[in-house]
Amino acid sequence: MDSNELYTGHFGLTERPFTLVPDPSFLFWSKQHKRAYAVLEFGVLSRAPITLITGEIGSGKTTLVQKLLSQMDDSVRVGLLSNVQGDRGELLQWVMNALSIPFEPSESYVTLFQRFQESIVKEYAEGRRVVLIIDEAQNLSSEGLEEMRMLTNINANKDELIQLILVGQPELKGIVLSPGMRQLAQRVAASFHLEGMDEPTVRAYIKHRLKVAGGSGREITPLACAEVFTATKGIPRLVNQLCELSLLYAWSSNHKRVSVKSVRSVLEDGVFFASNVMDDEAGGERDVNERQDDLTRPLFLRAGRRVDTQSKKTG
Ligand SMILES: Nc1ncnc2c1ncn2[C@@H]1O[C@H](COP(=O)(O)OP(=O)(O)O)[C@@H](O)[C@H]1O
Ligand SMILES: [Mg+2]
């Protein structure tokens, strides 16, 4: 039995309330998350050529994308690209891969493009729309974004054949609004920027997650919630991390509830912020390794990570 199991039992919880695993049952519909989701749905249904969702790291963008994927039916062919960087040609391969369009990596760009076009025209003829979601789109170069825009240019009878959903960190908005990106910006039909949650929302969020995990929602006091809000600026991922550590601390001191004191102990000990810094560094290092690794990998596998929409689909 590890300490995680011990603390859940101690608080009368049946599972860990603040894991970072995307679990739809933990989804909390704050006003903002609802709005962002509505924009995503509207984008898809209204055949918006481009929908743009931005927000701080950990604000809930990918969570909403996963939710959207889980709601899509057979009338939509959807591809998800996560964290792709790449040159001309390579990006198209990633896109085709995400949409499960078969191709040979040795084929020329022209042939690939033809294949791609044929495939989406066929989808259109069969009454399906094609949606391509690009998560962490701020990592695409301007050229990459421009290439994506070109893909949305393919149309038939004035209908868009492919819709783009661009999701990324706040700088993505700046990239899209920059002078060179005007053509892209003009095609953005719907957009939303996710901010951190405000204090009452953080309180409700914490309560929601505690309840889903089998608790009463009172395991973390309102004052402690306020402290969590201040330290995290209401960013869900940080709220989760701080709450989990605070539960551990309160458990180790044999407290029945997480008080503001437990939260402060975590903050004073530096475990919370240290863990964030370490997360960032680990992320950076991974990128570097991936890049170094790039040269030894087949072209098709380079520069990015494909997230399989099928296996990532969550209820
Ligand atoms: N509305 C929400 N309801 C429940 N949990 C959320 C919500 N938004 C974010 N989270 C949690 O916060 C964490 C970070 O969310 P994520 O979607 O990965 O953020 P982003 O993609 O913006 O970096 C996830 O572990 C997720 O469980
Ligand atoms: Mg994300």
Tell me what the structure shows.
The C terminus is likely disordered. The two termini are 29 Å apart. The protein is of the alpha/beta class and 315 residues long. The chain folds into two domains: 91 residues, Helicase, Ruva Protein, domain 3; 166 residues, Rossmann fold. It is elongated. Strand 4 and strand 5 form a beta hairpin. The strands form two sheets. The chain has a six-stranded mixed sheet, with helices on both faces. Strands 4-5 form a two-stranded antiparallel ribbon. The structure holds adenosine-5'-diphosphate and magnesium ion. This is AAA+ ATPase domain-containing protein.
Number of domains: 2
What is the string of SSEs from the N terminus onward? HHEHEHHEHEEEHHEHHHHHEH
Strand percentage:
5-15%
The kinds of small molecule bound in this structure are: adenosine-5'-diphosphate, magnesium ion
Structural class: alpha/beta
- Shape category: elongated
Multimerization state? single chain
Task: Give the uncertain stretches in residue-range form.
Answer: 277-315
Helix content: 40-55%
Organism: Aliiroseovarius zhejiangensis
Pfam families: AAA_22 (PF13401)
Domain AAA+ ATPase: 47-198
Protein name: AAA+ ATPase domain-containing protein
